[in-house]
Amino acid sequence: MSAVPLLDVRGLSVSFADNEVVHGIDFSIAPGERVALVGESGSGKTVSALSLLRLTANAKVSGQALFNGNDLLALPERELRSVRGRDVAMIFQEPMTALNPLMTVGDQIAEVLTLKMGLAKAQLTQKVIELLAETGIPEPARRARAFPHQLSGGQRQRAMIAMALACQPKLLLADEPTTALDVSLRGQILELLVRLQHSHGMSVLLITHDLNLVRRFADRIIVMENGCIVEQGATTEVFAQPQHAYTQRLIASKPVRDVVEVDGDVRLKSDLQSDPQKAGRAVMRAKGLRVVYPTPLAGVRGWFKHGQFVAVQEASFAILPGQTLGVMGESGSGKSTLALAALGLLPFQGELQIAGQSWSANAAANKALRRQVQVVFQDPFSSLSPRLTVEEIVGEGLGVHAPELSQDQRQQRVMTALRDVGLGTGDDAAMAQTLQRYPHEFSGGQRQRLAIARALIIKPSMLVLDEPTSALDVTVQKQVLQLLQNLQRERGLSYLLITHDVDVIRAMAHGVLVMKDGAVVESGPVHQVLTQPQHDYTRILVSAAG
Fold first, then answer.
1. What is the CATH number assigned to the segment(s) 1-87+172-252?
2. How far is 105 from 135, CA to CA, in rounded Å?
């Protein structure tokens, strides 16, 4: 690699009003180098990258960012506009929000080519198709005419990459380009970036908190904490011998298995038939579970009847007290539909029982079952009402299932629930102040603890965990998983865990269902499925997880 850096950042500081969030950082990127900028949410990594192109609104930016000898932070806006997209391009985290929903994918790529490269209209169509084909999108000519919502998550991200590479930039800033994708798609996008980086000879700055991704992709790693660079060096050296305590904590944040190993298998259909006693002890039992959605039919036939889309096909399992059944698969595999059916929120065919009782069409009849099974959703910020206080959110279930409690009794139960999930260690006076706070006043990990407290306050026997840690940073994820493991040991809780994260399955689950296109393609004890997968799809998921 060249001794002269392509990008040389010196003393970069970023402030909003009087609050400095990036504190005089220095780093460089050589031509053809892949560098990872790593840190948790709030560490300043995305703000630092956006500031290089002055894309941070209302921010005061100081220092130098020398790119090919020109200071990006000092360039007039008109000259900087010509650099953006042409010499330095960016891939954003969520393609669905970054792409214009009112324009086709092809038109959006063509717009870049017109503005930055000055291509004539006659050249645009073929160039757009070539760019999409280079990213591996099937049927690129047809996909170019599609709107973003008509593409899958992986296809949208590939379209974003095609747009970023349209002008063959020298430097690509990739801001969490795989966070919103399934584990196998992450591997595909990573391989695509490596291949394109080699073929175009560009440098890449990858902003991420996914350490598995960093280990497989980056030549060099830069670690940020609280707006400062605390460590940087060759990826292999930093992972082998991290020097800073924060880096050591990040690397050690892989989920750790700490569950009570129980006898019995949570998944086999034959178990339900050959061992009626075990099936009778099951907290949740399903046999031949099937979920079907109606779909419109084309033409005259659609006037009189609907078609069918089978979202879950013949799923059978039993979950015993103190056990966790992990359900893994990619988006669209049917795992979240299975969870909704288990919660009695979707009509289904087949058998599904909780503590020996089935869901009823009568909402009043389901009240006792609602107390037995509760849910913790993926994103605590959207699942907690911003208009309610902590006391109202956590205590809401008591109003339905324990209306006989007085206000003081209810408040004491809420305080106890918060302490059980590690929120609040002070006396009742200090806790009373916590009860009057709102969700936005808590961190992401604290909000997820609130969601768990809300689910536990009515003392259920089972929790449905729908991607409970995917929206959290790695260190917070580990803390929340440890909390769930402790609660399971102390209370004998059963979990139905929905996730695409193989590391979470490995840490939490006793048994696994692997779903693809609505069907259970493999099931078994966690150690068997993850170490000796039998189905090709399972092998892909496990290998993609690193």
1. 3.40.50.300
2. 13
